[in-house]
Amino acid sequence: MIKNPFAKSEPEIKRRKNPKGEYSHLDTKELLFAVKESAHSTHRANLDILLDIFLERYDARQQELDNLNRELEERIEIEVNIGKANHKRYEQQAKMAAIGEMIDAVAHQWKQPLNALSMMSEMLDSDFEDGLVDKAYVDELTKNTQVQIEHMVTTLNEFRNFFRPKNNKKSFGIKRCVQSVMLLVNDEFMKNNISINIQSEKEILIHGIENEFKHLVLNIINNAKDAFNERDIGERNIFINFYQEENFIHVDIEDDAGGIPLHVINDIFKPEVTTKEVGKGTGIGLYMSMQIAQKLGGTLSVKNTDNGALFKLKIPL
Ligand SMILES: Nc1ncnc2c1ncn2[C@@H]1O[C@H](COP(=O)(O)OP(=O)(O)O)[C@@H](O)[C@H]1O
Ligand SMILES: [Mg+2]
User: Is the pLDDT assigned to residue 152 strictly greater than 80?
Assistant: First the structure.
């Protein structure tokens, strides 16, 4: 049989049988080269095959990407949930730690009036036997016991207010708040020879949750107390200063307790960062304080001064 000279050549037939086979092992660069070649050759039909391969590969990539995205979304959700759970846990720990610190404060505040009351009742007994108890004596005794009891009641009320979950925002005075915290820790700080000095005369109002602000102040001054005691420092002062400057309200709390250890200073606002021994420190106090500062729309920062640490709360007006 005479061969038809116009018949298609053998390789072309092979390609039809397994049209993609010839190209499927090529990488993208080689495929593009094949496209170019094919565009210039007479077998333009190959362009369709090549396009098919491209599309197939594109689909496969797309599928991979979709899978990856889905996986990422799942992973992000898991991480966010872990974050939320941790946040809840830290919040809970902070509350427990704060309650512990407050109960300590209350116990110290009560120790002295309880001692006084116990002494008075002992004296009453012996004074009666000595015939010293008359109307004037009883009046004096009543007055003195009232003073002591009032001191205890004030502490208790302050303590109850502190933990009653009043979450409503309102305007409150910084000075009044600081004074109310001082009332709670007064005896404990006096016992530790620490004097807290409020340097600002003028009251300044801010808007937020009052108890949270008190917590922030308590956390910071309690840390200063710990630092003083750890380092056995003689002269012990905490200075609290608040003022308005350039559309910000500033609250500065400074101590002369030697400063934040340099190896933790960049991390102290993170949860569970503490230099204190187990059972003493939770590393939650400053983390919570930062959350509170942020809820007030502000920031909390710290730096070491020549003698100690200076915490700066800055709230936009
Ligand atoms: N006034 C301060 N002086 C020195 N170090 C401080 C002071 N305040 C905080 N720190 C350091 O920051 C750490 C973290 O404080 P905090 O978050 O309150 O946790 P905790 O008091 O439970 O350790 C403390 O362990 C301490 O090392
Ligand atoms: Mg603390």
Answer: yes
